[in-house]
């Protein structure tokens, strides 16, 4: 089954920032899709919970240089 996580991502200033977040998340195992909205500081991620969890995704966003908080 599939789950959705929404993160607040702080510090993105342009669409290339959003692109690097998207790329980093999509490279993780267990990700179905990721969409990052730079204007609203949001990342929505569809993932398979038997392979990856929200905290691992959150850390991958932090690793590319942004502060990420799980919203729901
Ligand atoms: Mo855009 Mo983001 O020039 O760190 S890539 S600001």
UniProtKB/TrEMBL annotation:
It is found in: Membrane. Residues 3-69 form the HMA domain. Belongs to the cation transport ATPase (P-type) (TC 3.A.3) family. Type IB subfamily. This is P-type Cu(+) transporter.
